[in-house]
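User: Here's a chain of 358 residues. Predict its fold as tokens.
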Amino acid sequence: MLKGRSINELARELERQEKSKADYIADSRATELFLAEDETSTVNAVVRPRIRVAGLEETFNIGEIAHQQIAERLKIYKPYYDRMLATNPELLTANVNSWFKLEPARRMLRTLDGRVRGILSDRFRPLDCFDLCEATLPTLAAMGVEIRSAELTERKMYIQAVLPKLQGEVQVGDIVQAGVCITNSEVGLGAVNLEFFAERLRCMNGMVGLSSLRRYHIGRGNEEDGDVESLYSLRTKNMSDAAFWNQVRDVVKGSFTQEGFDKGLAVLKVAAETKMPDTADPVKVVERVQRRFGLNDTERGTVLKSLIQGGDLSKWGLANAITAVGHTVSSYDRCYDMERFGGMVVELPKSDWEALTN
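Assistant: Prediction complete.
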């Protein structure tokens, strides 16, 4: 796993963002792109699209994720969207503004540091990382849990924590310790998720498995009239959110019970006993893994090398070969993907496992 930030660094950045971010509900007909010179460009003058909303004095840069969400919402083929953005921003601006008016919808604009970081449904329910940390970190500290890794990317927040005194053997000499992986996306790329996390002491790989709690960011649509409404003061302040954060605390506590750990350990033990058939070709198996999980060729090569060197042609061996890729990537988001893919292999139903290995 990648180390990311210290928990103190994570907390400081969340506190900073809490003061800088703001959310708005806006009708797309009152929202438009316009071209302006990019002030961050240090070479030549570069013109890029910005967003303005009727009723707001401030205008905003557009983040990569927001661009992706605009393309998806308006059904513009993303490679063509990117081509317009790079070579003909005037055409992109005209396209987007036209569709904003032809297909009106109320959308939530999530802004941070003068940039639109996400454009979401008006039913998106903000369950933010600051509040999630307030609900979980004191509970983890009180239990003597160690934070193994934490990070805050454009896409998600991640916290991986373990309790070293809660350990067990998957097979003889192969020890894992109990943990929890906490993730959340403020820009619509994932739910609030608490998952079983196992840290393998032999190689310090992490594996993310069965979800203990998942809450999607879905709430009631905003029915207020008007072009734009600020939601900053309303975010995560209602009673239903308070009840949810209490539930999160309870799940965190339950993640480090002997009973909860034994359930997860039992799944890993079954995976270690589930072998590939003697006729299985590891090269073909890894090629199928590549297609199933969307690995690139470098990642596929690392999985194959780790699988052969490990000599364990079981679900558990294949899962660990996949999570080993996490040591070789620079993106924390991609590292988590590999840990989750490993957990998904462990949890494969019999029919899927047979299709992968036969």
